[in-house]
Each structure stands twice: as structure tokens, then as C-alpha cells.
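re the bet — no i am not wrong, look at it urself. input seq straight from the record:
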Amino acid sequence: MPQGNEAPEQAFRVSDHVKDGDIKLRLAFACLTLISAGLYLTLPASAQTPACEPAKIAEKYPALAGKTLQMGADGQTPPYASLDPATQTLTGSDIELAKAVFDCIGVKYEIKPAAWSGLFPAVIAGQIDLMFYLYYNAKRVQQGDFIVYMKAGTGAITQKGNPSGIKSSDDLCGKTVATGLGTVEEAQMKKLGEECVAAGKPTVEVMTYPDHAAGFRLVANKRADIMLTDLALVDRTVADNPTVYERAYGVISGFQIGIAIKKGNDVLSSALLDGLKAVQASGGQKAIFAKYGVDPALELAAELKTK
């Protein structure tokens, strides 16, 4: 019987073909299900989030089974890495994140303190397997491979009271700036110095330091007006030494920070990438950042960079 204002002929046609339509609909759904299943099965492994399976290291990364990874870290870079004077062990967000990744993979490891300036050369030479927290750039990636995991913020630290009145990079012409040797900040300041001269202003005097402790001393001893380095490191240093230092300014630079590995060590790169992705997916990296006062929003999806 037709319902409401439905025409009798139209209702008859619908009723007459309902079984045929139902069969076609079921067939269509069945085909779609098979296609979807086939697509899922053919997805590359990289498209799926890796899992922490430490017991499967010999199966997944046979070249790493039984190996002890050697990682270097500068113990004077809190909150990322600092040396506990009581235990002489390294602690910090990078140290804890590295351990989480190693444990996820199932690989043994040793983390040793070393001067920052010697870490990347040691990676390149194969003296250590990796280091955390190195700015990725076009020059460095020619010498080593990177797995980026966070965005960078740059801070300018000065003496308490900011006697030079520095509020931004616009105030740096004619000033002395301390930067890490070979860092992106060194290159930036040299370029800024050229721009200052072109504008008829005094250049930026750049002083380089081999490690962060030396850089902070340049500021404390008033040999440099400011020191440029990681923003979280600046804020931690100011908090620990409020009568000595002050933050002049800070910016989110857009640079990427990563794990540095010897060029072409594909097995290690693959394992670390998988481990880092798994830790990130679990919320582990953000939790570690929050624990050590690093902004969790600085987390960057893990990605391998070889060029």
C-alpha cells in the first residue's frame, strides 16, 4: 500500500525492486571492504606508527642486537642535559628522552659527558654513535644525518638590569654578541653585522665560545653584551642565577633540532626514528618536556633528514 501522497505506481516500483537493490547494495559494500582491506595491507611500514617492541630487537634491527650505543652530551646545558654533582650522572630532558627511545628499541647504551664543541665532530668520526639536540642545517646535514624532533627558540641573555638596553635583534648593531662556535647564531650575527655596516651603523662584534659555560662567563664578565643560545637554556640559567643574568629577549626561530648520526648509518637511523615516533605517539616526549620546563608545544613530528 502506498504511504501518504506517494503515487501508487512509484510505490509499486520501489517495492518490486527492493530485493534486487538490497543485493546490489550488499555487493557494493563487500567490494569496498575488500578494497579497503587490500589498501591497508599494502600500506608501507612507515605509514603506520611503530610500536615499542624491545624484545624484538634481533628481529627488527639485527645489526643493533648485542651492541652498546655510545651517546655524548654536554652536561652544562640544562634543562636538556646537566651533570648531577652527587652522582656524576647526566640528567635532563634530552637524557630522559634518549633513554626512552633506547628502551623502546631494546638497545643497550652509554651516555657520556663531553664538551659541546666536540660532540658533532665525534659523531662524524664515528667515535660516538649519536648526540641529541643539534640544530639541523644545510651544512651539517652534508656531514651527518638528522632525526628532527623539536622546534627551536633562541634567547638572548645579558647582565642583570640589561645595561645595554637590548630588547631585540634591532638593537645589536655596535654590540658584542657571544655565540657558539659553528652555530646558526654565529652565522646570523655575521650576516647582521654586514647589514649594520650597509646601513651606516657599527658592525656586530661576534665572540665565539666552545661550550655554554664559557659563553655565560663572557656575559657575566661583561666581555659580551649578550649571548645567544637556546631559549629554554637561557630561561633556566636566569632562574638559577637571578642576580647575575637577565633575559634580553627571546624568539621562536623556526629552526629544527634533532638527533645527529654518522652519515649513512641507515640501520641506526631507522631504529631511532621508529623509537622516537613511538615515544611521541604515546605522549612520552611531551611529558618529558613538561617535567623539565621545556614547552611541550615545541615538539616536532619525528622525521629523518639526510639532505
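see?? DSSP finds nine helices and twelve strands in the chain. told u. also Confidence is low (pLDDT under 50) at residues 1-46. so pay up
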